[in-house]
Design brief:
2 copies of one chain form a homodimer. Chain A contains 5 helices and 6 strands. The first copy, chain A, is an alpha+beta fold. In chain A, the strands form 2 sheets. In chain A, strands 1-3-2 form a 3-stranded antiparallel beta sheet. In chain A, a hairpin with a 5-residue loop joins strand 4 (94-98) and strand 5 (104-107). The longest helix of chain A is centred in the N-terminal third of the chain and has 15 residues, at 2-16. At the A-B interface, helix 5 and strand 6 of A face helix 5 and strand 6 of B. Strand 6 of chain A pairs antiparallel with strand 6 of chain B. The structure holds a DNA duplex.
Chain lengths: 143, 143
DNA sequence: AATCCGATGAAAGTGATTTTCATTGGCATA
DNA sequence: TATGCCAATGAAAATCACTTTCATCGGATT
């Protein structure tokens, strides 16, 4: 899993004529061994703890690269920060976002996807992607 | 419809001990006779055309008030701008967002809502609100 | 018409993200 | 291995979409 994504990123870098650097390796490692749904700031702080020589801008730029390479996806959950989640090939899932503790769970539902396709089809709309988020209280925060 | 919302806002103003002002009347009129899903900037520019004396900050503040009063709802569609849509009582709908022309259509689907409730229930999650957006090409942009 | 206090507009401030720019450092080539 | 090219980096400045400040204005209650 981790290895596969490193390979994907290495290939992406090579294909674009970009360079392999220490910073990119460190950031990729840290990203892959993190929580899904990490914000840029969270990742930056995590990195700073071990590597004081990594700049803010580099983290931003590198995460954007991950997204372009297809190993990460940008997400907004309305807290004003962009989060990046891990992307597995072909996989898609939706989110349950706890408005109290901020925890994010994932779910998949084939029937909902099916209904979405029907709705789009009935209007001649071609779906490229979708987002479905349920906001509320997670089981722990309900007490 | 338009009258009903003006009444709701007037009542809201009164109840809070706020004031009725020329600017608020103008902004409300303009909002009510606009497209659903207008961004703040779009509304501001529209207003400026007729009323050069309305400030940016006032438009922001007033739209927030509309949201508090329950006649508008803040929405984010990932283009970096907050949009306000009209709110009818008790109504909820989801969106089809065209990634080429930016047009936003609405839809409702009771079965999807039902499935969402089941998913949440199975995890002990209490839904407060949700968002479902389908991004892609609208019928016109598909050519 | 006087007074109170919310409302307004211009400008300054915020916070997240992006860009600039001088410098560094991969890496292909000589 | 040395050289040169140009991408990558980090710090700081800039940008973007808002939000707040503050001096002044103006509803509305007395």
């Amino acid at each position: 899993m981790k290895r596969a994504k490193k390979k994907i990123f290495a290939d992406f870098i090579a294909q674009r004529g970009l360079k392999s650097t220490k910073q990119r390796d460190i950031i990729l490692d840290s990203f892959l061994s993190s929580d899904r749904h990490l914000s840029i700031e969270e990742l930056y702080l995590k990195l700073r703890a071990k590597h004081s020589n990594i700049g803010y801008a580099t983290v931003y730029r590198t995460l954007k690269l991950f997204a372009e390479a297809g190993i990460a996806r940008e997400m907004q959950f309305g807290d004003g920060q962009t989060r990046y989640e891990h992307v597995g090939e072909g996989e898609h899932h939706d989110h349950l976002v706890c408005t109290r503790c901020g925890n994010i769970e994932e779910f998949e539902n084939e029937t909902i996807e099916q209904l979405q396709s029907e709705i789009a089809a009935s209007r001649g709309f071609l779906i490229e992607r979708h987002r479905l988020e349920l906001y509320g209280l997670c089981v722990n925060c309900r007490k």
